[in-house]
Design goal:
Chain A is an alpha+beta fold and about 550 residues long. Chain A has 16 helices and 14 strands. The longest helix of chain B has about 35 residues. Chain B is globular. The chains are: A alpha+beta (about 550), B alpha+beta (about 450).
């Protein structure tokens, strides 16, 4: 057995990184193939017969350079009016100037139909149905990517089984079987649904695969619990994707969301239990969980639902801002500074997306920086954490212990790794959560570790595409802010463990050990899915006469 | 929509920052991977700070100097061999930083960037040294209780057959940091005031830049320069270069230096390896120093006879002497014969690196002078059966300290083409201690 394992390891440690690199290229090709050509949704015709195509679902009509429909007349205001889709219908709303539909002056947003005449500062425009709106785009299949991923998973599984032999946890094969069966079932069902792509699922599944591998090799006693969390996460993902189809409903419930989020956070801050440094755990009838993880999703949804409507009142921005600051306060009381940073970045993203003046953003950032500095003055233990930053080797056996061990591990693995279960990082505290990048680097090699990191970048790229093409700003805000939070968290984890950033003790999504963080990650992904599939056809207000 | 698209670019900048971080990490790995992987807490290679996983180190006859068996690092069973080779082999904690077990740790551990510490056999790479461990033992014994170093190499091939250092220690005993220099490989990392052995450099410079045979200076127990007396051991009267080297006349060489000038002498010194960092198998040696740019005439005069602030590194000076022996062509001395994988595949074998340090004609002249020096001054009876060419040095190192005793030279022979350097600290005249150490060691060749 020993001999067989060694030879298998010698081959598979080349094959797995090789296939992973192939998977990266296959995914990039698939990602490009999935790009839909720009679709003209409607058109405006001037009295001179000039056609203005409309490609977005939120259009500013005006004279400014940010205007989507530019009318270069002096009498037209910079941001004169808005032409947008809401509830599957076109609407027109006045902003800074006067608008008329069929010679009736609007005082508030009104539905618009094809054939209607819009008057903007004596300029008459006819709203028209797009001629070529009936083209169809078929999303290509991702079976090749999925096949490569499955081969990687099988190679990893075999390596783990051979490595541990009879000592292997009975559930190892079951967990991998569930993963492989689950992903294929999901893919096949997905192919039957219109508008269902498989883009962000691949990086997520790649992360899950190596999370599972680390789980099997380093802390196999938690295998059943981790798998259960994934299943719960998947279930919630499906439910939440469905709920997210109704942003109007979420908008109405947002106060409930906010109240629950704040109640949960403050309850934890004052009555939570301390596990591993931060007081961010809540135990209900034997189950321990981290409310701050779940609140990340609630936070994003609150932000998106408060601010998605383009004609939202300025008051709402401040409503969300106050809510954010309250969240940050609770997290600071918990000493969970990693989460503070993540929420703060999420807040900045939401606020920047919604017409917030850059000056205000700068002011908020500056205030936060000042607050952070004073924090360092008042909490010496935080200062200590920062003092080791970038000097981990000078404190290799004290405060820099975790970081230096991670660096040693990542160098020991080389490009190809020493094989699952053969690393020496596991006994270091928090190795399976905060330092998991080191475990992956050591046991599976730098190529796999870097591919894992690229998965987060892939989520970010896809978020950009989704946000650009989203049907409603709700999805743009939700997807972008959750992507920013995911990438920022990944950066804090990876670079923190390698001493490029201060070590804050946050998890690497889907790879680290952790129940609540897995469920929260699935919920974050449901925002992506919802944005991807939510593209209702635009129906006319009344039929053409 | 334009607005939203515009602001969406924030995510792209976040992604770019993240990727930059990954790039930075990769760059750091590429730069520091060896340092990180060979850190003494790495359990792949060390066990509680002691080296465990490493290949075999053998001498030129295949004697095991160090090897790993049953997850423990072992040394040769003979304590004399252990003590005589520890500075080249290295200890288990990395105190001897120029030892193979430190400087070649990643090679010995079988570590590389692609494979990491993984190796299908679970063993590290092997290093075969050019050392002759029994010769090292003889040299260590000859040095005895005095501090010093002996280096011997084959000037035709470059193979170093002997590096001995005292004081030394037994590597199987658990070691702790010590301040007495016991962990220093003096042959590589030591620098010494050269004393009269430096006159070889001055002679070479004279041969190259003047009509050396015509040079004639007077010596009256020294010479007056700038109103100060530069002392000499003898009253040599009017003396020429050949006699001057044999009698080691300070007055002659000080005046030769003044005749040559600062830049000429510096140029010659730098050509033969002064003010340069030389490397033995990639391991950096301490620099030999010759700097007279700010010296006045009397100090410059002293520098011409190896005093003042002249410093010599034994490895550098040995390679210079080897070049004289080899007709001007210097073969860089090396100690690694070859590196093999656990399965015996040669990963790296020694390669000769040649530099011409002087013309064959001048090398021959120096050789003749050094030969007559041994014949006339020390006597061939000190080296039975060997034609030895050499030059001793007695380096003054301060008013109250006993001078260092130095002896450099080579055997002029096809069968035994060895050049040697002996430095014995605080032991008086070079013709005394250093010469007798050399005579004992060369007898063991």
């Amino acid at each position: 057995m020993e001999g067989l394992y060694i030879y298998y390891l010698a081959i598979s440690r080349w094959l797995i990184p090789l296939l992973s690199v192939m998977l990266v290229f296959c995914w990039i090709k698939y990602y490009r193939d999935c790009k839909e050509p720009l679709k003209i949704l409607a058109g405006l015709t001037t009295s001179d017969g000039v056609n203005i195509p409309i490609t977005g679902k939120e259009n500013i009509i005006g004279r400014g350079k940010r205007a989507d429909i530019l009318i270069p007349l002096k009498s037209v205001k910079t941001k004169h009016a808005l032409l947008f889709v809401k509830g599957g219908r076109w609407h027109l709303a006045p902003v800074e100037g006067k608008v008329q539909i069929n010679l009736q002056t609007l005082s508030q947003p009104a539905p618009l139909d094809y054939g209607d005449k819009i008057t903007i500062s004596k300029q008459e425009l006819t709203f028209k149905r797009a001629v070529d709106s009936k083209h169809t785009f078929k999303i290509p299949g991702a079976w090749l990517c999925l096949l490569i991923l499955t081969v990687i998973q099988l190679l990893v599984l075999c390596q783990i089984l051979l490595r541990f032999g009879k000592e292997a946890h009975l559930f190892v094969a079951v967990a991998f079987a569930l993963l492989i069966a689950g992903e294929w079932l999901y893919y096949i069902i997905g192919r039957l649904i219109k508008r269902f792509a498989f883009i962000f699922e691949l990086p997520a599944l790649f992360l899950i695969t190596f999370g599972l591998a680390v789980n099997c090799c380093v802390y196999p006693d938690q295998l059943i619990k981790q798998t259960a969390c994934h299943l719960v996460g998947l279930l919630l993902y499906l439910i939440f994707t469905f709920v997210l189809r109704y942003p109007e409903f979420l908008e109405k419930c947002r106060y409930v969301f906010m109240a629950v989020t704040l109640a949960l956070l403050y309850y934890t801050a004052f009555f939570g239990s301390i596990l591993g440094g931060a007081q961010n755990w809540l135990t209900i009838s034997g189950f321990s969980f981290q409310p701050s993880e779940l609140c990340k999703v609630a936070f994003v949804v609150c932000g998106a639902s408060s601010l998605y409507s383009i004609i939202c009142r300025p008051k709402l921005k401040w409503e969300f801002f106050v809510f954010s600051v309250l969240c940050l306060g609770a997290l600071a009381i918990m000493y969970d500074f990693g989460a503070v940073a993540i929420f703060f970045v999420g807040m900045l993203m939401v606020l920047s997306l919604r017409l917030m003046h850059p000056g205000i953003i700068t002011a908020i950032t500056g205030a936060a920086a000042l607050g952070g500095m004073s924090l360092l003055l008042f909490f010496p233990h935080v200062t200590r954490r920062f003092s080791v930053w970038l000097h981990a080797w000078d404190f290799a056996d004290s405060t820099g212990y975790q970081q230096t061990r991670t660096m040693i591990a990542s160098a020991s693995g080389g490009l190809l790794g020493v094989g699952g279960g053969n690393g020496h990082l596991a006994p270091v505290s928090a190795s399976d959560s905060d330092l998991v990048f080191g475990i992956v680097s050591e046991e599976w090699g730098a190529i796999i570790a870097i591919t894992l990191a690229l998965c987060f970048a892939a989520l970010g790229m896809y978020a950009y595409r989704l946000a650009k093409n989203a049907d409603s700003a709700f999805y743009s805000i939700a997807v972008l802010s959750s992507a920013v939070m995911i990438i920022f968290q990944a950066g804090l984890n990876i670079f923190g463990s390698l001493d490029l950033l201060p070590l804050t003790g946050v998890t690497l999504i889907f790879v680290s050990r952790g129940g609540t963080s897995i469920i929260s990650a699935w919920l974050m992904l449901s925002l992506f899915k919802a944005a991807e599939i939510h593209k209702k056809e635009i129906s006319p207000w009344r039929y053409e006469e | 929509m334009k607005w939203l698209k515009h602001r969406s670019l924030i995510i792209i900048s976040v992604v770019v920052l993240f990727l930059a971080g990954i790039l930075l990490h990769s760059a750091r790995i590429a730069l520091y991977y060896e340092d990180w992987a060979t850190y003494p807490t790495n359990k792949h290679i060390f066990d509680q700070g002691l080296l465990v996983k490493a290949g075999e180190i053998t001498d030129s006859k295949g004697t095991f100097l160090a090897y790993t068996e049953n997850e423990t690092r072992k040394y040769n069973s003979n304590v004399d061999i252990r003590k005589a080779t520890v500075h080249t082999v290295g200890d288990l904690k990395g105190f001897v930083s120029t030892g193979m077990q430190s400087a070649y740790l990643s090679t010995l551990a079988g570590y590389d960037l692609v494979n990491g510490v993984f190796n299908i056999s679970g063993k590290g790479n092997n290093i075969a040294l050019t050392l002759d461990s029994s010769l090292c033992v003889s040299a260590t014994k000859a040095l005895g209780s005095r501090s010093g170093t002996v280096g011997i190499y084959n000037y035709k091939t470059g193979e170093i057959v002997c590096i001995a250092n005292t004081p030394t220690f037994d590597p199987i005993e658990v070691t702790a940091p010590r301040g007495d220099g016991v962990y220093v490989n003096r042959f590589l990392s030591g620098v010494y005031a050269p004393g009269s052995i430096f006159k070889l450099v001055t002679t070479l410079s004279a041969l190259e830049n003047t009509k050396a045979e015509e040079l004639c200076f007077s010596c009256n127990y020294g010479v007056d320069i700038m109103g100060e007396k530069l002392t000499c051991m003898g009253m040599h009267g009017d003396i020429k270069i050949e006699k001057a080297l044999v009698h080691s006349c300070n007055a002659f060489f000080a005046q030769t230096a003044l005749t040559l000038g600062r830049s000429t002498l510096t140029k010659t010194a730098e050509k033969v390896g002064f003010n340069k960092t030389l490397k033995m198998d990639g391991i950096e040696c301490a620099q030999s120093k010759y700097n007279v740019s700010e010296a006045n005439d009397i100090d410059f005069g002293w520098s011409g006879i190896g005093q003042q602030n002249d410093l010599v590194n034994p490895y550098q000076y040995l390679s210079f002497v080897g070049a004289i022996a080899n007709g001007g062509e210097g073969i860089s001395p090396f100690v690694i014969n070859k590196i093999t994988s656990p399965k015996g595949v040669t990963l790296k074998s020694s390669s000769k690196s040649k530099t011409t340090l002087m013309s064959e004609e001048n090398a021959q002249k120096l050789k003749t002078m050094m030969r007559s020096n041994v014949k006339e001054n020390y006597g061939d009876y000190r080296f039975p059966g060997l034609e030895v060419c050499g030059k001793t040095g007695t380096a003054e190192i301060g008013k109250n300290a006993t001078p260092h005793s130095l002896f450099v030279g080579f055997i002029d022979s096809e069968d035994k083409p060895y050049a040697f350097i002996v430095v014995v600290e605080n032991s008086g005249a070079g013709s005394g201690t250093a010469l007798s150490v050399a005579s004992k060691v060369l007898a063991a060749l």
